[in-house]
Amino acid sequence: MKKTERIALARIFTDLIKADSVIDAHEMEWFAAIKERYNITKEEEAEASKQTFAGAVSTLATADKKDRDMFLNDFDDLALSDGFCAKQEALLMIALYYALTDDYIDTSEVISIESPLIHIEDTQIIYIESRKDERYNEEIEKDYRQISKEIKVSGFSFVYIPYIIEHYKNTPFPLFQQIVSFLAPHLAEDIVADLIQHLTTMSTPEFCKDQLCNKLGMSSLRETNPSLLIKVGDTFANEKLFTNFLKIEIHDTVLQTVQKFLDRFMEMQSSDTIVIKNIEESAGQFLYHGFYKQLFDIYLLRSSIRSTVLVDPYKESITLPELHTPINGLHRREKALYTLFLIESAHGGVNFNYPESSNQINAYNKRMKQIQEKYNIIYEWFGGESGKAPNLEQPEIRRPMISCIKRCINKIDDILHHADDYTVIKNSFGHFCINLEEDLLFIIDSKTGEKTPLFHSEFYKKLMQG
Q: Minimal CA–CA distance to 318: which of 345, 338, 301?
């Protein structure tokens, strides 16, 4: 057996023992015996404490079927070694079952993220997708009552984003505004209005990408098929708290996928008592519990966020929507330059280096002319006067602008995830660029006035045409 597998086993055995918050003598005896059988050393135990639950599961998923079946049998024996399988143990066990059995190994994933500041409940089954799937959404709308009821009687709650958003839409705007201002008194009125706009128009794909990926760090969900997402507990790794999730892709119907999960989960449960929450909204009330609260809190979360960037040349602004804040301190010329760098970074960045060889001067002049022409166009779109854009070829003009951009990003580095990715850097080729993924960049489209991906916009097409 590989060392990496022994480390992964130690990680999972430890998590299962700790899951019910009770450690008894039988479990310690069992753990000592299993360590001896797998030859797990003290050093490997220490290494296991630094690994996430998802990392351990991923390692074991590469083993052959015979070994995976053996691992699952041992996990099952440990979970029942004290004669009782608590809910937290059952959640971990079902994650292991889906991630390591042949029927589901290719369509399931365990995800571990460093725990956010908000509390995420264990009892939610969330429907997610990175692109809207008409078939499954129609199924959910048609079978919502049955899906929701079956989930509820098993002690979970079903989270379907369009229905959550419908509740927000049905809240009278003045009441919604009062509630948001009460819950987040630090927000300015225009930011409150923007937040309400987001909460009342959000789709499941937007929730998946903007909130789960960008804010909570579930980057693997950027391109996900329609799936169910279930929290399966919290674990410590490398002295940090991590939250673990199980993602199950939907292949039959949504209802059948839900039923298979619930049947398996209930088989693992030893308790004969299930707590069913039954809080419903009524007229004049705003739900602030469960997922309603979580979604609201995620929107207000401002700690280490992987935010998108929204360029609005018509309002002369560049904002970070998930932070509900503009990049303050930039003047028109810096905003235009920042936008130029966002665009040119997709093509390798901007090279301002003057050539050492006279043979390269013509190519340099041609390149600088093209860059300046693009900058002139962007500067005018930001409201600048035609023919008055700063000359980027002059270092004494260009350098203070780049320094200004860096200072403005540095002011918010405590609330940006990898703030260095948002600032201007000089890469190993000597090119100036901004290291942000293209799918984080958006612009207000000139035709529709709607937020659209930067590189699919009319703005970009016209710029490339010159």
A: 338
